[in-house]
Design a protein that fits this description.
Structural class: mainly alpha
Shape: elongated
Number of strands: 0
Strand content: under 5%
Oligomer: single chain
Radius of gyration: 28 Å
Distance between the termini: 15 Å
Largest sheet: none
Helix content: 55-70%
Length: 102
């Protein structure tokens, strides 16, 4: 009985696609999102010097709000399903099972 459990356990193979994104790749993706958002903020600040009148409000709001958005986007976790398959624990027969079989 135990041998059957061990063999069925050994037959299951882990898939590399079930592993989560590596910390290095995750960090790189978050830094890219943050950099792009802060680049857009820089453009908003530069546009503030070029836009006349009340139109300056639009890029000013962008320059004020974008740092918050950049931080939130950078801290969002990966939306892919991150389930790591772990080997099942082998269930060893208990003493009660041995008594029931006899």
């Amino acid at each position: 009985m135990v041998l059957g459990l061990v063999q069925s356990h050994m037959a299951k193979q882990q898939s590399i696609t079930s592993l989560p994104r590596s910390p290095e790749d995750d960090r790189r993706a978050r830094m890219l999102k943050y950099s792009i958002t802060m680049g857009i903020r820089l453009v908003c600040i530069l546009v503030c010097f070029l836009v006349p009148g009340y139109w300056i409000i639009i890029p000013a709001i962008g320059a004020i709000v974008l740092p918050y958005i950049a931080v939130v986007l950078a801290n969002v976790t990966d939306s892919r399903k991150q389930v790591v398959l772990r080997p099942d624990r082998l269930a060893l027969p208990s003493a009660d099972d041995d008594r029931n079989e006899q």
